[in-house]
Design goal:
539 residues; 75% helix
Length: 539
């Protein structure tokens, strides 16, 4: 048992990192009510959390190199606990965003790269594959426990208690830190590349912000933006500016290396083809995962009217199969290579998303929905069982903190874009479908349809159809029969929007198969490295 004590600490921390994100997703309706806001505002808070992590994950990895991974891991946990405590007491949406999205996000940006490096440094060979399987499995357990526990606490008590529990869990982890042996001090104390931190964080933040706001701003034609650029929506211009900052970041990093200074991240790592494939697949996996876990609770809560606990129960199949598949990573490696397992997982995931589209109906079909969820968890678990070990095993020991930073940057950037992009697609499809249905509905007069079009052009919210009916009742100029027709069209448009969003996830899954070419084609060797060593600069 002593050999696995470090894994108990690190696995518990991994469980903690994913717990509250899954709690937030099933608590969307309650958060909207508690803070008197809209779904899009909660979407922004969820996106900001993963965006802060993505923006500062490279910095967290570099700080681990500078001050020691164990020390940075502890400091990150303490910051995370402060954020959890503030979130539990948050009186306003702004304080919620500060405590959860910003402070917890910064704490996680320190914890996760150090966690990945500490796992890789504590185990080798098959033990490392087992360790990453367990870590992936505990991430699955967090996803499993989060909706159920969070749903029950949210429904019968308050979601705030989950964050109080996180503070207690952090204290328990800190008390177990003696199980992780101290590291030798770094031989070389690098300097933090502050210009690189600013450029990378600003570039990533602007790109995700633009995608998040695209549903409100519009992509090309202005919908309801705060400003326009040459008469066009600012969305693509903000994306382009963010991309330009990331390009400037890459040029800056190259100059740092040429002058013998320490870069924030060595761009030479991207010459490692196995690392590139692993990072890209991680990015796509989390884009799909967080996109679906934003859309599915909306279907269950807003369309079907389920409470948070009932939503958690409906998500149990995905949680159970994801946990089982994640924990079976080493068993799968006995019969197939990491590349084969990942490709099979993506095909299973593709089948699950297509099945889910057929299960989204006005009336919840329990058996069909549960089957789609179980298949979804199986595919996600197969990916989770392999990708962490693939990324860490593809680099040398000295590069593990940087690889950990890149690993969790890819994951959290995918999470940010998943919530933002799929959420924007959902809102855009809802607005388009509602406008088309109302315009084509013979029950609705031209004058009322024109007025509805003006309202949709200004922006549309994903709210219960009963709220739309109540809003229309406050406008006596809209005849009751036409108001009923509008509500019916809105209900159908919600389903159209949800199906479009899930179809987008299916498309991302299919495209992901193209990026798996350079994943390891053989089983890990006993030395902890793949027997097929990636070649720097390989295409």
């Amino acid at each position: 048992m002593g050999r696995w004590k470090p894994l108990v600490v690190l696995g518990t921390a991994q469980f903690l990192m994913v717990l509250d994100a899954s709690v937030m997703n099933v608590s969307i309706s309650q958060l909207v009510e508690d803070f008197d806001t809209e779904v899009t505002a909660i979407q922004a808070v969820i996106t900001l959390y993963t965006l802060v992590m993505a923006a500062f994950m490279l910095t967290g990895g570099k700080l681990g190199d500078m001050f020691g991974r164990r020390r940075v891991f502890v400091v990150g946990l303490m910051i995370y606990a402060v954020g959890s405590g503030l979130t539990a007491a948050a009186p306003t949406l702004g304080v919620l965003a500060l405590g959860w999205s910003v402070i917890e996000g910064l704490g996680a940006a320190l914890v996760l790269p150090a966690l990945a490096a500490l796992v890789a440094g504590s185990y080798t060979g098959r033990e490392r594959a087992v360790a990453y399987g367990v870590v992936g499995g505990l991430a699955g357990a967090g996803i499993a426990v989060g909706p159920l526990l969070g749903g029950w606490v949210t429904t019968y008590l308050t979601w705030r208690l989950v964050f109080v529990g996180e503070v207690v869990l952090v204290v328990a982890i800190l008390l177990m830190m003696r199980w992780i042996p101290p590291e030798p001090p770094p031989e070389h104390r690098a300097r933090l590349d502050t210009a690189g931190v600013v450029l990378s964080a600003a570039g990533l933040a602007l790109m995700v912000l633009a995608v998040l706001q695209s549903g409100t701003w519009g992509w090309v034609k202005p919908r309801n933006p705060p400003f326009t650029v040459l008469g066009f929506s600012p969305t693509l211009f903000v994306v382009a500016f963010g991309a330009a900052l990331l390009y400037a970041f890459c040029r800056h990093e190259r100059r740092c290396e040429a002058r013998g200074r320490d870069p924030l991240v060595s761009l030479d790592l991207f010459g490692n083809s196995a690392l590139r494939s692993g990072l890209t697949t991680l990015f796509n996996q989390n884009t799909i995962l967080l996109g679906l876990f934003f859309v599915i609770p909306l279907y269950l809560q807003v369309v079907q009217g389920l409470d948070a606990f009932e939503t958690g129960l409906k998500l149990v199949p995905v949680s159970v199969t994801m946990l089982a598949a994640s924990m079976s990573g080493t068993l799968l490696l006995r019969i197939a290579s990491p590349r084969t397992i990942v490709r099979t997982g993506l095909l299973v995931l593709l089948a699950a998303t297509l099945w889910l589209i057929t299960a989204i109906e006005p009336e919840l079909r329990g058996a069909s929905f549960a089957g789609a969820m179980a298949l979804l968890g199986l595919g996600l678990g197969m990916l989770a069982s392999q990708l962490g070990n693939t990324v860490q095993s593809s680099v040398a020991t000295k590069d593990r903190s940087e690889a950990g930073g890149l690993q969790y940057t890819a994951q959290n950037l995918g999470s940010s874009l998943g919530t933002a992009l799929i959420g924007a697609i959902l809102i855009g499809a809802l607005a388009g479908a509602a406008g088309t249905r109302i315009e084509d509905d013979p029950r609705i007069s031209g004058a009322v349809a024109e007025q509805a079009a003006v309202q949709l052009e200004a922006g549309v919210a994903f709210v219960p159809a009963d709220d739309v009916a109540a809003a229309l009742a406050a406008h006596p100029e809209v005849p009751p029969d036409e108001a009923a027709a509008i509500v019916d069209d809105y209900r159908q448009a919600q389903l159209d929007g949800l199906k479009t969003a899930v179809l987008a996830c299916s498309g991302i899954t299919a495209v992901s198969l193209l990026f798996t070419r350079h994943l390891p084609r053989r089983k890990p060797s006993e030395e902890g490295r793949t027997t097929e060593e990636p070649t720097a600069g390989a295409p």
